[in-house]
Amino acid sequence: MRNLLKRTVVFMLCSTMLVLLLTGCGSSKSGGAVNGNGVKILMTIHDDTDTFLNTLIEAMQAKASSSGVTLEVVSCGGDATVQREQIAKASSGGYDAVICRLADATTILQMEIAAGDMPIVFVNNEPSADYLKADKFIYVGSFEQDAGRYQAEYVWNGLGKPSSLNVIIMEGMKGHAAVPQRTNAVKYFFLDNGVDANIVFCDHGDWSDTVAYDKLEMFKLTKQPFDCIICNNDPMAIGAINWLKDNGYDTKKVLVAGIDATDSGCEAIRSGDMFMTVLQDTVGQGEAAIESAVTLAKGKSVSTLSGATEDLKYVWVPFVPITPQNIDQYK
Predict the structure, then answer these.
(1) What's the DSSP call for residue 166?
(2) Which one of 96, 253, 261, 302 counts the least CB within 10 Å of its CB?
């Protein structure tokens, strides 16, 4: 997606794909039962305190248990060198596959070299497609641009489809692969629909409610008007809501959108403080990661799995927009 035309085409194709994948939505199944008896998988993560990641791990453990898979989870503590060593030991230690949440997405080639002939399923921090390899080094996750596009679309509709609007964007941690994808999708939705979207403030809230709040306190000094706050995740959206309330804004008029459909985010939707969020299907991602790892460990192709792309480098688990109208179906 190196130009606007390509981005527009990709969004249209992904929308079509999402509609097809969501037929019979409400289920977290990504491809059905797999027989993982005798398969040994190492999962290496960057941070064992990350709430989203721990939920993802729980889903993987449940899927592994029901599939006969032996799953070991280790943390590298954010150190890419340690992560490379973990993968190298797994390669020589009888493991059949690795599931990896990269500490640093730019170190993917080092991890692949360490793995040797062993397949790797990357999750949660999407590396460059240039270093993925069909049916060997793949990525399982959700198409990040869809999340940002949903946010922009729903907020724009909620504001009455204005021809122009002032937007605040709170971004996640600098360097995380999802951040530019989610943010740029917001911007390109408005551009593609001929909306004059003035981004009055865009800064990193580091996935945190308190950091987002503090950054908005800085923005307040500019005294610029704004119509909405679009956040790369729910905790930052909660921070934005708290800031709005503390500064006398009406959250029914200034719309706030998040991503992840966390418990606190869904509570805010039910109370009317958050306009919408986007569900990142953690259970679906966890199950798909295990299914993909087992499939590759057995020397088979992920082409048999739901959400697999034609190039066999990705297995996508669709995002779902969550509003007051459908929240009870999912949370």
Answers:
(1) E
(2) 253
Q: How confident is the model at residue 34 (pLDDT cuts 50, 70, 90)?
A: confident
**What 3-state DSSP class applies to 102?**
coil
In 10 A of CB 111, how many CB atoms? 25
- Segments of the chain assigned E as strands: 40-45, 70-75, 97-100, 120-123, 137-141, 164-171, 196-204, 228-231, 255-257, 277-279, 314-316, 320-322
Cα R_g (the chain), whole angstroms: 20
Q: Own/partner pairs for 246-252, CB < 8 Å, 24+ apart?
A: 247/220
Which tokens in the block code for residue 285? 């991602």
**CATH number assigned to the domain with residue range 25-142+281-317, chosen from the 4 options 1.10.645.10, 3.10.20.340, 3.40.50.2300, 3.40.630.30:** 3.40.50.2300
Q: What is the pTM for the complete model shown?
A: 0.77
Output 192-197 pairs: Cβ under 8 A, ≥24 positions apart. 192/4, 192/7, 192/8, 192/11, 193/156, 194/163, 195/156, 195/162, 195/163, 195/164, 195/165, 196/163, 196/164, 196/165, 197/164, 197/165, 197/167
Give the residue extent of every domain in the chain: 25-142+281-317, 144-279
Q: Convert the pLDDT of each residue in 139-192 to its tens digit.
A: 999 999 999 999 999 999 999 999 999 999 999 999 888 999 999 999 999 999
- SS3 of 32-63: the string is CCCCCCCCEEEEEECCCCCHHHHHHHHHHHHH
Tell me the helix, strand and coil percentages in the chain, rounded to 5: 45, 20, 35
| Bridge partners of residue 315, in order along the sequence | 140, 308
Q: Which residues contact 126 (CB under 8 A, 6 or more apart)?
A: 105, 139, 141, 144, 177, 178, 181
| Cα 108 to chain centroid, rounded | 18
Examine domains 25-142+281-317 and 144-279 and report if their fold is the same. yes
- Class at the top of the CATH hierarchy for domain 144-279: alpha beta
